[in-house]
Amino acid sequence: MGAGPGSCFGWAVIETLTANADRTEHQSRPTTESLRAAREAGAFALGTPREYGGAGASATEVSRLLTDMGRACPSTSWIAGTCLTAKVLSAVVVDFDETARAEFFGDPDALFCGSGKPGGTGVREGDGVRVSGRWATVSGCEDAEWAGLAAMVDGDFSLVQIPTGSLRIEQTWSVAGMRGTGSHTVVAEDVLVPAGNVGAFQFPPGAIMQLFGLSVLAPMVGATFGALDVVHTMFASDRKPFMTAYNRMNESPGARHWLAEATMLARRAERTMLAVAAEADSGAELTAADNSRLHLDLAEAARDCRSAMERLLDLHGSSGFGTSNPLQRFWRDVAVGSRHAHLNGYLAMEGYGRVVSGVE
């Protein structure tokens, strides 16, 4: 199995996230305790530039850290990943004012949220830009301090940094899984933003795009290992297969086979994730063909997570769907999170098909 719980963040952090995972889901945002633990562990500094006290974490380190967090609380891990993405997107915008940049990143542990979809417009007005718009599914927006939002400013594709206190949040997040991410809609209503907080949107190079995909996949890999932990606990108990002569689950060759299969799928997803991370960390320039191949690898790893979850649910039986059982939460989180656009399987296969067939 992958690295044990707490191997990167320490037992205290993992225990806090685990203890608060159910409450995080029910209140549709991480608990105060979970946010404090994640912040103190440096989870929100992963994307902060080094010159502002950031971690400068590699793709491999990010993948391992978010996997450990996801094993305890996928929603809190997800928010740490989207914070990284929002900060990296902000860091690559070269024409932000330096004073403004120092303000964004003044606290390296500040929580960022954001959206790369241009959901708003901006019009320049004196020394500022007046912004209005709506951005859906902005994870962590209720607890973030800054929102990096894509907008069309005088016809130019731009990134605008706005303090979340200047935005209105509409409670629109209502889904089967990843409920604790609080991915609501943020609304800007004629907000005047300093001109230094607006810059031309920069599309990152391939290695950074792979990092974004990894920040989505890693919480799903972690959630799969979290589900394995639940089933291992069940195997270690006096639970036995219903309507059989077996005294324990591990006496059944069929049950052992399915547990092995689920473990193999989880490990394969983790190996694939770390292989993509290693390639992103290599420093080599990634070609369009490389990016297409790696995109497909990430999508296939997400599918392995879903397949592993199905086996684990089969093993646990209907009791795994009890609302008090964390297995059903891990299952719902993986079912939703693994279908994020960065992990879209059919588009990844379509793109790879163009490459291998010579169309592009």
Comma- or semicolon-separated keywords:
seven-stranded mixed sheet, Butyryl-CoA Dehydrogenase, subunit A, domain 2, 360 residues, Butyryl-Coa Dehydrogenase, subunit A, domain 1
A few lines on this structure:
The chain has ten helices and seven strands. With 360 residues, it is an alpha+beta fold. A seven-stranded mixed sheet has the order 5-6-2-1-3-4-7.
Describe the structure.
The protein contains 10 helices and 7 strands. The chain has 360 residues and is an alpha+beta fold. The protein folds into 3 domains: 11-90, Butyryl-Coa Dehydrogenase, subunit A, domain 1, CATH 1.10.540; 111-200, Butyryl-CoA Dehydrogenase, subunit A, domain 2; 206-357, Butyryl-CoA Dehydrogenase, subunit A, domain 3 (Up-down Bundle), CATH 1.20.140. The chain has a 7-stranded mixed sheet. The protein is globular and about 80 Å long. Mean pLDDT is 94; it is low at 1-6.
Low-confidence spans: pLDDT under 50, at least 5 residues?
A: 1-6
Number of helices: 10
Largest sheet: 7 strands, mixed
CATH superfamily name of the largest domain? Butyryl-CoA Dehydrogenase, subunit A, domain 3
CATH class identity of the largest domain: Mainly Alpha
**Rg, Å, rounded:** 21 Å
Level of helix content?
40-55%
Report mean pLDDT, rounded to a whole number: 94
Query: What is the total domain count?
Result: 3
- Principal-axis shape: globular
Helices and strands: which structural class? Answer: alpha+beta
Strand content: 15-25%
State the separation between the terminal residues, measured CA to CA. Answer: 39 Å
Q: How many β strands by DSSP?
A: 7
> What is the name of the CATH architecture of the largest domain?
Up-down Bundle
Which strands sit side by side, in order, in the main sheet?
5-6-2-1-3-4-7
Order of helices and strands: HHHHHEEEEEEEHHHHH
Which fold name is given in CATH as the topology of the largest domain?
Butyryl-CoA Dehydrogenase, subunit A, domain 3
